[in-house]
Amino acid sequence: MLAENKKEDIMVSNDPKIESGPPKKKSNKKKKKSAAASGPIEPIDPYYEQVMQTYPVFLRSTKAKGRHATASKQLDEGTTIFYEQATAFVVRSDYIDEHCHVCLDLLTTKMMCSDCQKSFYCSKKCFEQDSDTHALVCSPMAVIDSIARATDVDVDLLRLITLLLARRQRDNDNKDAPDDGGNDQQKQQATAPTPFWCTKDLISHRNHANPAFVRVVKEAGERLLSELPESMQIPVDDLLTLACRINSNAYGLGDNEARNTDVALGLFPVSGMFFNHACNPNCAFVGVQHGQLTFRTIRPVKQGEELTVTYIDLYASRDERRQDLLDSKNFWCKCKRCTSPMEQSVDRFLQSIMCEKCHEDVYVIPPSPMEDLTQGKPLDLSGEWKCAKCGSAASAQSVTSTIQQAQQMYMEGIMAIRKQRDYRGARAKLEPLVASSNNKSTKTENMKGGDLHPRNAIRFNASIPLMNCLRHSQDINAAINVNRYIIETMEAHAKENLPKNTPEISDFWQNLGELCQLMASKNSDRVPLNKRWRKEAKEAFDHASQVRSIVFGPDHPKTKFVKELAASV
Ligand SMILES: C[S@@+](CC[C@H](N)C(=O)[O-])C[C@H]1O[C@@H](n2cnc3c(N)ncnc32)[C@H](O)[C@@H]1O
């Protein structure tokens, strides 16, 4: 039973000597007391050390960082550091009949389970591979939609819980053997799903769960359990803990064809346990076929350095990132970027407006303390904020008012697209935000009292829907300029040590290539212009391919796809 294994109850140790990983070098430096130092040290089960032994990773557990992974040797960018096969994963309901539920390939021919009508496969092979697991979940899957609707619980959460309980059942029956006889040791290991028992070691943050969430999940859980076979039953309280563990640890799996779309959601206990979040990560995770997750370095990593990934958007302001992590993962980010002084951090640009006097830096807006963010308490606007470069001051009130105006325009632009499909109206709202700069000539009526910094998060966020509006209205040249601004902004961040190799950057390079190709075809009869656009398209696809080779690996379908685009120009 899950309850008997609950890690929160039985495995917690306060012994500070329990620590795993290689011996640390002695340092003469006086140790800084970390603000993150709290809670007991979690011991590491030898199973995880054994799983990791073929990878260049040491597992550690410390008071400051909890359990985490470090590099066991110096690593180049683009190194695969870990594979894991999900204990269970679900194709998200938005894509339920678009991707195979076993290999995740896009469905060109569909096979559907005629009983539940909720499981889709690309081939007989995948259908047969799923048959034992599906036999356990077929009848509950048929009613999960109605349970989710009646209780207001996310249907994909309920589907994932059901598949995890099926995995538990199959582990108990000891029926699962790795199905792929590949001779590469790492791959062989990865094709065996991580066993269900590992989920008990995952952090759940159950004590911080929203009471409304607890109530509805318990209600949905009771209903779901009544649909499950006897052998799959667990106490509803354990089902709730499992739901909290999914919320805190699940990973989205990307589509191999499209950009930036999570088509599936999986629980990967080993990854969930050892890869902490950082707002300036050195690794990325990418979904590969069959519900596998791969972790790769996106920059060179020194021996002993912690290996981190991001769980959220890196181009959001510090307060927004922390709020996002609090809401979605129940923790307060204490990474280096979030704890460095605001006046020295790249974060000041994302949150603020240009200094009216020197036009070189921004007024430094202090980050909100956790209590204020959790209680929705507004910033103290009684004083002044100073420019990080020249020190001239502006009233907090006027800086905030400019930012609020910008936020309002951004929301109006987004709503015009979402509610009315009014691309012209949206463009009118978004364009002044993106055009705003320290160049006085481009200042508009709507942007009084200062401009957004070019790297301000509202401005950056506005640029993406603006590019889509421009594309929609066939103003391809303008869309290209906005796409260039997006890439320039990301590269400017990268100069200040944010990652330069991310899936998002590769997507914007691909998009730029496609826009330039469109311009080339519009100018097919004007040889010099056509040649110029084709040259830029090829360069953009080559950039996308370089970044993807690092982030996804040279053999990933997304890398191959963009290489083909480059070759076709
Ligand atoms: C997916 S787990 C990572 C493993 C975790 N260290 C453990 O021991 O289970 C995510 C949890 O780790 C902690 N964590 C990860 N990144 C963090 C960060 N940047 N700041 C503070 N806590 C973090 C939070 O408790 C979070 O819910």
UniProtKB/TrEMBL annotation:
Residues 23-34 have a biased composition (Basic residues). It holds the Pfam family zf-MYND. Residues 100-138 form the MYND-type domain. This is SET domain-containing protein. Keywords: Metal-binding, Zinc, Zinc-finger. Residues 1-10 have a biased composition (Basic and acidic residues). Coiled coil: none annotated. Residues 1-38, 171-191 are annotated as: Disordered. Residues 55-312 form the SET domain. GO terms for molecular function: zinc ion binding. It comes from the Eukaryota.
